[in-house]
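Hi U.,

Before I forget, here's the chain from the pilot set. I'm dumping it here mostly so it's searchable later in email.
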Amino acid sequence: MLSGAGLTRVWSHDRAHAFFSRARWNADILGISLSHLIVRRLLAEGAVLTVVVDDTLFKRRGKRVFGAAWQHDGAAPGPKPVGRGTCFVVIGLAVELPVLARPVCLPVMARLWRPGQEKSKVDIAASMLRFLAACHYRRRLNVVADAAYHGKSLRDLPTNVTFTTRLPATAVLYGLAPPRTGRRGRPALKGDRLGTAGELAATLAFASFKVRRYQRTDTVFLAEATCLWCGSFRTQTVRLSLLRDDHTDTGYDLALITTDLTTPGPQLITRYAWRWSIEVTFAEGRHLLGVGQARNRTRAAVERTVPFGPYCYTITVIWYVLHGHQPDDAATHRERAPWYTTKTDPSLSDMIAKLRRTIIAARFMPTHPGQPTPTEIRAVQQAWATASPDHAA
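Structure:
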């Protein structure tokens, strides 16, 4: 950050560490401010918000690192995917951008989860979703998450929030509660046992649909049923969507459970496919922005440094879409690197490079000469060649 801002010879690095460990600011409020910026500048008026929820482990060593522990690491190789580090639950807005063919997830909130604490990952995610829904109370929020996110915490989500997740294979579903009989006693809260997703797949009728997912259109077979999942949503009516890619007599490839009772099945599958965008964000944030690499240990620093990294990811993408994109960016990249024969969209590395060159060009404009070093002069010459003065604002 200090290098990118050109402050390495002006500020001490201790000043940056103090910003995270001692300065008075709130990471959640900063993320909510970014969410409002996304809604105002990148989405249409009244558009529904697609929210993605997931968690990821940032590896850290040292006994004094707050929140660091041995825990599950989905990216770890081998039969036991575990690693030592800090785990953060992240929520982001999945949006379609005019400069990209794929949806991109822009993180807007992240909180630390510690093994053994009272709150689970689902509890933390539900708390963040309620906060985000309250700040965007005029809009509908469609939330998607993987199979790890289900439980009692999701029962009291606001009315403008729908939740879609994968159904565990062992989850048992029930029919809707029967009408009251008028007799004395407690009315029935659920109907007959319908069974697991595997048992229902053998009885439901599948129909063929065209589904848009992962930048391609596929023909899949869908079957749906309205039911109750008492384990997570108790008496709230939910919908089961079973998907399989080939026309077989039994079985399924994907089972989704959702509180959205109105969206057609193919659109629901497309929405859930957007969930993968947060995995791309995690990978790019680690490898290109260095998210999670800061060597800090205190509680405030750990809880705020990692969220600030994904926020920088969001800020970079917003800046590029609004101010940095040029229609010939991908073609120019192919000219510099002709082996990228199929490259049609700018990548995050292209966005970062464009932002870096624009910052350099703005620091040393021809009308306001500074005193750069020979290395900086060469960097400025390269920046002027790729960034016009209009983009230095």
